[in-house]
């Protein structure tokens, strides 16, 4: 249901954008993607690592204080080593190498406040459709190794500040993903990015 609502919003805003193309813009986003997963100790020490990320952006400001954006992006490989201690399966602690990367498609609605200086403060909500590739290498008994991928749909929240020139803009933003870990007790994703826009 949430995906259908997101798709309806995109189609509605896209039709508005077609009528007024002068308010459209596109850009490139470069960022740092922070990823962590935790579990109840002492069985798993958890993983925590950062990777570079990029997104291709397209957007439209259809009202003075509202914008809609779409983004297609990817991260580099996120890698960390964790220690597992399970007295039932293997009494001796051992390590696993955890490698993962994300591909994402994001749709978001932004509220903006413009100042005469060219600065804009913005914040909004979105929906992220992500595909996560996972590879776990077991350095111990060989019973925890796994590889594969999964599709995840999660809400996102973004806040940032933007400076606008005549045809160009630059944005510094922080984005939080409402990520539910599929394997561990708790997961967390945050992203900080710089985006360069060209306005049509």
CATH class: Mainly Beta
Give the helix proportion (percent range): under 10%
Percentage beta strand: over 45%
What sort of overall outline do the alpha carbons produce when their principal axes are compared? elongated
Low-confidence stretches: 1-22
Rounded radius of gyration (Å): 20 Å
Assign the CATH architecture.
Answer: Beta Barrel
Overall tally of structural domains: 1
Can you summarize the main beta sheet?
8 strands, antiparallel, barrel
State the helix count.
Answer: 1
In total, the number of strands is: 9
Q: Reading side by side through the largest sheet, how are the strands ordered?
A: 1-2-3-5-6-7-8-9
CATH topology: Porin
Which structural class is indicated by helix and strand composition? Answer: mainly beta
For the termini, the CA-CA separation is 33 Å
> What is the chain-wise order of helices and strands?
HEEEEEEEEE
Question: What is this entry, summarized?
Answer:
With 200 residues, this protein is mainly β. The protein contains 1 helix and 9 strands, in the order αβββββββββ.
Topology:
Layout: H1 2-19, E1 24-38, E2 47-63, E3 66-75, E4 78-86, E5 90-114, E6 119-138, E7 146-164, E8 168-177, E9 186-199
Antiparallel strand pairs: 1-2, 1-9, 2-3, 3-5, 4-5, 5-6, 6-7, 7-8, 8-9
Describe the protein.
This protein has 200 residues and is mainly β. It has one domain (26-51, 61-143, 156-199): Porin, CATH 2.40.160. Helices cover 9% and strands 70% of the residues. It has one helix at 2-19; strands at residues 24-38, 47-63, 66-75, 78-86, 90-114, 119-138, 146-164, 168-177, 186-199. An eight-stranded antiparallel barrel has the order 1-2-3-5-6-7-8-9. Strand 8 and strand 9 form a beta hairpin. The protein is elongated. The two termini are 33 Å apart. Mean pLDDT is 83; it is low at 1-22.
């Amino acid at each position: 249901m949430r995906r259908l609502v997101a798709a309806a919003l995109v189609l509605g805003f896209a039709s508005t954008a077609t009528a007024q193309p002068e308010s459209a813009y596109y850009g490139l986003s470069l960022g740092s993607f922070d990823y962590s997963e935790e579990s109840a100790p002492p069985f798993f020490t958890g993983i925590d690592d950062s990777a570079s990320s990029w997104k291709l952006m397209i957007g439209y400001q259809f009202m003075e204080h509202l914008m809609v954006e779409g983004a297609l992006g990817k991260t580099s490989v996120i890698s960390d080593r964790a220690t597992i201690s399970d007295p039932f399966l293997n009494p001796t602690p051992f390590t696993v190498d955890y490698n993962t990367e994300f591909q994402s498609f994001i749709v978001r609605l932004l509220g903006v406040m413009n100042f005469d200086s060219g600065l804009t403060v913005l914040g909004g909500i979105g929906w992220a459709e992500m595909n996560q590739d996972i590879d776990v290498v077991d350095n111990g008994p060989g019973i925890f190794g796994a590889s594969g991928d999964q599709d995840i749909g999660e809400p996102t929240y973004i806040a940032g500040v933007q400076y606008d020139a005549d045809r160009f803009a630059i944005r510094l933003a922080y984005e939080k993903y409402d990520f539910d870990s599929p394997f561990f007790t708790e997961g967390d994703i945050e992203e900080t990015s710089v985006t360069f826009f060209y306005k049509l």
